[in-house]
Fold this protein.
Amino acid sequence: MNFACLLKTFFASLFGLLLFCIGLNAAQALPLFARQTGQNCVSCHAGGQYPELTPYGRYFKLTGYTLGTRQDIPVSVQFVGGAATSTNGNNGTGQVHQSGQLEPNYIFLDFGGKIFDNFGAFSQWDYNFDNQISGKGSIPNQNSVSADVQDWRYADHYVGESADSISDVIWGASLNNYAGVTDVWNSSPMWMYPYIVSNRNYGTAGVPYNTRLSSFSIHNPGYGAYVYLNQNFYAEADLYQSSGAGAFSWMTYPASNSNPNYAPTYLQGLNPYFRFAYQSDEHNGHNWMIGALGSSINQYASCDTVSQSAASGQFKGVSPNCSGPVNAPTLSSGTVQYRDKAIDSQYQYLTDPHTVTAQARFTAETIYDPNGIMYSNPNNTMNSFLAKVSYVYQATYGAAIGYQNVNGTADSKYGTNAVTGQSLNPNSIAWIPSIWYQPLQNMRIGYQYTAFTKFNGGTINYNGSGTNASANNASWLYLWLAM
Amino acid sequence: MKSKHPFLNLLRAIAILGIASLAIIQLGCTNFNDIPPVTTLENPSRSRTIGDYPVSGKVLAVQVCASCHGVNGYSNSPMIPNLAAQQKDYLVNQLQDYRDRTRSNEYGVLYMWGMAHYLSDAQIQELADYFSSQPANRVNTEYAKDAALARGKVIFEKGIPEAGVIQCNSCHGADGKGIATFPRIAGQRPYYVIQQLHVWQHPDEKKFMEVGGNTWAPRTITFARPRGALMLNNVKNLSDADAQAVAIYLSTLP
């Protein structure tokens, strides 16, 4: 019985016990943070549109999830299922193996909440149904468990006299596993729309390529500290390191040095991520924020690095480019250096029955790969602009539209034209409208559509094989449940 | 699970499940909260805990309540009432009513039932002390030129005799600052006042909704503020336009 098997058994047991305990006390069938605070989800989530945070939600997260009552069973469960389909049938680009039928996609297990007065956690593990395992092309799809979002925090909050120039200080430290996961604004890399996507069709998440500092793309153990002055000025710095071995390797489970199917991301030394923001005071239900963030990532190549990096391999279905039996960083060939700088902004109007929120982020990136580890050009750039506006009525009926525009240098990494043989560029544009209905605060039925007006640099026949951008359009009818 | 003995694996799984179940049942599934504070890891002077152990009201006020009602008792959201210089007796009553779930205006149900659920009598006294002693030192000028002000002033000072609406200042004080269990209404936000008047204007209004405070099942809530029963006759004939006018007028009072 190997470790993975034990872990699976452990999760199965845990899930069974959870159901058992829920049976004991129906009151436990609300999500963890709702039980802990005794409040409706809409207190912390703008218009109930999880995971968008209200000012109070930001306070809750920045004070380390410690507001409220410690829970008897510090666990909750989320389920995402639905039907993903695309213009291109069910076997096109970006579609992992969708059937077009209703099918389960994810179960998330969430642990943590308040642990001590100054210590709390948001620890989310996912159970991915029928997941496409990357390794070596011969492994069939299977259900898998992985460390999803990890944010373990120490936090404290000083309140002084209001006449003082510094009257309110929140400070803390976090151990986490994605750059940006600690953030409390929804214009940040990890927490931006679209919020619920299908594991069967990555087109539901939008454009196929993005800058390194974007969702789920710097997946490494990291630690950092932050301070929030007068609930206006926010500053944070984190350092990210290689995953796969050592005390923090559980944070990127199941990636490990010895698991040929899940290669970890090897980074050189400690890689910084920073974040500054100014949050306005709330005035008559309105509040806004403007911020800047960035990261500097030096990444080694490894056997599986190409297929794992920046999710691009997953989108294009590229096979790993070497066949070594063990994952190992290729130290001798140096690193690829990603430098990302971004500005972002958020606006919220929160007064029942109306919730209006808008976010935007622009990221400029330079990629330096002198030894041609992953890119054919030594110097590449990529810019990305992402935005979204949404409206929710009575925290029940919602509509949103997202816009994503990515452009960058042509490089064989993005594929080549079947006719001309020229490298493709990553330039892509997606529009993502969605509507949803929340009959209960912890249940959402939604429909989301992704329309590509540009894909891999073109609208018509972008790859020389006759594929149009619109062939990647994706529709996604889903159910989200949390308890 | 690539074992030659699937049956053995099943047995192992059952064994692990059984042991883990017993462990959790031993823990009781319900009794973590009876554990006294782990003193070295708790921080009573800056705690945001509710119910785990008794934190002082002053600490709760600035660490928990202030996140919506403001450290000085001035909230930033129109939905959330200002508590600065509110009457102490009134605050005590309301916190008790939220704890006992007898005050059931909509947002109170969503946000305050859970917050007040574990409050002790001592904490309620301390919270009321804290907010009632915050000075009322902000004047809202947002509606200073509103067309409805004059009408609101008339209702506040003279009532609407033909509709049976008694003037507000007969109970809430000449300047709306309240007395004992009659709340301060001066300087309150119009959105909040309109919401509260609505509860008495429509005493039979119900809604099928979720409730705060660790209760799973949504249920039908009849919106009510029993302690404000005196208001029922006063405002039953109050039109929405007049409710708005008086709310706007109140917001301009210091």
Remarks:
- The mean pLDDT of chain A is 86.
